[in-house]
Amino acid sequence: MHVVVVGSGFGGVKAALELSKRQIGKITLITDKSYFLHHATLYATATGKSTEESVIPLNVIFAKHPNVKIIEDTVTGLDPHRKLIASKKKDYHYDKLVLALGSTTSFFGIPGMKENAFGISTLDDVREFQDHIHEEVVHNKLDKEYFVIGGGQTGVELAGAMNEYLKSLKDLYRLKNTGSRVTIVEAQKRILPHMSRTASDIVSRRLKKQGIRILVKHKVNALEDDKIMIEGRLHPTKTAVWASGVINNPFFKTNAGYFHIADDGRVHVNPYLEALDDVYVIGDNNTVPHSGKAWPALKQATHVAKNIARLATKRTQKPFHAHSVPVGVPIDTRWGYVEWLGIYVSGQSGAVVRRWMELYGYCQIVPYRTALPIWQSHKLSDVDDNL
Ligand SMILES: Cc1cc2nc3c(=O)[nH]c(=O)nc-3n(C[C@H](O)[C@H](O)[C@H](O)COP(=O)(O)OP(=O)(O)OC[C@H]3O[C@@H](n4cnc5c(N)ncnc54)[C@H](O)[C@@H]3O)c2cc1C
User: What are phi and psi of 163, to 5 degrees?
Assistant: First the structure.
C-alpha cells in the first residue's frame, strides 16, 4: 500500500510518524516546506526568543524513519478517479491520501492590510517582524503605539510578549521614547471570543495591568505605512500586526468539485475522517468539532494512521470521537491562563501549565531527548545576536 500524506504540520507529520511506526508499506510525505512549524511559539520567536523552538527541520523529525520519503513540492489538484494528487513538479499516485494542509490568512479586503501589516503565521512573517523591530531599535525610533489586530489567542499572546519584549529592549539599550504602548484591536465585544467569559475577564485584567490597551467593538478600516484607521480615526504607527482572519487552505476551494465544503470553507468528513473514498482530511481543514488547534490535529492523525493499519490487515475502520482539549494563553514570562472543561488556572501556575503543554506537544513530534532542548530554548537570545 502507498500512503501519501500532504503537509508537514501537526497533522501531516504525526500521521507520517504513526504510519511509519506501523510499517504501512510505502509512505510519502509531500510538503511545501523543509521544516515543521510550531505555531504555538511563533509569538515568542517573533519577540526575541529562539527560532529553534518554532522551526524543527523534517530531517531531524524523520531521522529514524527511513521508510518515510519526504518530497518538497506544492500540491495543486486532485484526481480521485485515477488516485492522483497533482503538484507543481509532478503527479503522485496514492492508495490512501491524507490531506493536512492547514489554514491560511485572509485580510478581509481591508485596504492596505495585506501590503502594510506584519504577521506571525509563517517563518517569513516572523523574520520580517524581527527585522523591523531591530531596525527601530538600531535607529532608536520606537513607535509611540504598537497595534495588534485581533484579540483571539494569537493576538493576545503576541500583545503580552511584545509588551514584555519592548520593555526589555528599552532597558537593555537605554532607548528614548519609552512611552510606547501596545494596543489590541478586536471587532467583537470581548477578547478571546472563542474562550470562556472568565478567560476574557481574567486575561483582560492582566493585560491592562501590564499597560496594554484593549479596544473591543472596534474595527480597523484601513492601514497605511505609517498610520492605522480604527473606527474612522487615524493613529500614527509603523507597526500593526495582523493576528486575525484564519481561513481554510485554498486547495479545497480550487478542487471544490470533489469536496463537500461548509460555509466557513472547511471540509465535511465522515466518521472516519474521509472526505471521499481513500482521501482523509484532517486537522484545520475539516469541520470536526475542536479542529483548528494543534492537539485535535495530532489526535486525528493518529486515528487515521490506526485506521489505515486496520484496513491493511483486512479489519474495519473505527469512528473518530472528538474531545475538547485544554487551551492555554501565555501573557508574559510569569503569567498565563489555561482552561479545560470549565476548570481554569491562571497566574504563574497558568504559565507553568502552558509551558508543560508545549513540551507535551514537542514529544508528539520528536523523541523526548530531542524535544527537551527544543523546549528549553525558550529564552531571549536573538536580541543580542541580531543587533
Ligand atoms: C500564529 C498561530 C498560533 C497558534 N497557536 C496555537 C496554540 O497556541 N495552540 C494550539 O493548539 N493551536 C495553535 N494554533 C493552531 C495550530 O497551529 C493549528 O491548528 C495546527 O497547526 C493544525 O495542524 P495542521 O496539520 O492541520 O496544519 P499545519 O500545522 O498548519 O500544517 C499544514 C502544512 O501543510 C503545508 N502545506 C500547505 N499547503 C500546501 C500545499 N499546497 N502543498 C504542500 N504542502 C502544503 C504547510 O507548509 C504545513 O507544513 C496556532 C496557529 C497560528 C497560525
Answer: -60, -45
Q: What percent helix, strand, coil does the chain show, rounded to 5?
A: 35, 25, 40
Query: Pairing between strand 335-340 and 327-332?
Result: antiparallel
Taking residues 66-73, what's their average pLDDT? Answer: 96
Closest CA to 145 of 69, 206, 90, 226: 226
Question: Which residue minimizes the CA distance to atom 27 of ligand 1?
Answer: 102
Within 13 Å of residue 66, how many CA atoms lie on the same side as its CB?
A: 0
DSSP 189-211: SSSSTTS-HHHHHHHHHHHHHTT
CA dihedral 353, 197, 218, 119 (to 10 degrees): 20
Which range of residues forms the domain containing residue 26?
Answer: 2-32+73-105+246-312
Task: Report pLDDT digits (tens) over 281-331.
Answer: 999 999 999 999 999 999 999 999 999 999 999 999 999 999 999 999 999
Question: What total of structural domains would you count in the chain?
Answer: 2
Q: Of 190, 156, 194, nearest to 331 (Cα)?
A: 156
Q: Is residue 141 part of a domain?
A: yes
Q: What is the CA radius of gyration of the chain?
A: 21
In terms of domains, do 135 and 123 share one?
yes
| Ligand 1 centroid distance, CA of 9 (Å) | 5
Task: Judge if 381 and 343 occupy the same domain.
Answer: yes
Condensed to tens digits (0 to 9), the pLDDT of residues 30-42 reads: 999 999 999 999 9
Give yes or no for residue 386 having a pLDDT over 60: no
Q: Indicate whether 304 and 345 sit together in one domain.
A: no
What is the atom index within ligand 1 of the atom nearest the CA of 76? 41
Task: Tell whether 258 and 191 lie within a shared domain.
Answer: no
Q: What percentage of the chain has pLDDT greater than the value 70? A: 97
CATH of the domain at 137: 3.50.50.100
118 and 216 co-located in one domain: yes
Same domain, 117 and 179: yes
Burial of 341 (0-12, 13-18, 19+ CB in 10 A): exposed
Residue among 54, 94, 293, 340 to mutate when testing ligand 1 (max atoms within 8 A of CB): 293
Q: What does the alpha-carbon distance between residue 244 and residue 191 come to, in Å, rounded to a whole number? A: 12
Same domain, 230 and 357: yes
Q: Is 32 in the pocket of ligand 1 (CB under 6 A)?
A: yes
Q: Quick one: pLDDT at residue 171?
A: 85
Same domain, 230 and 379: yes
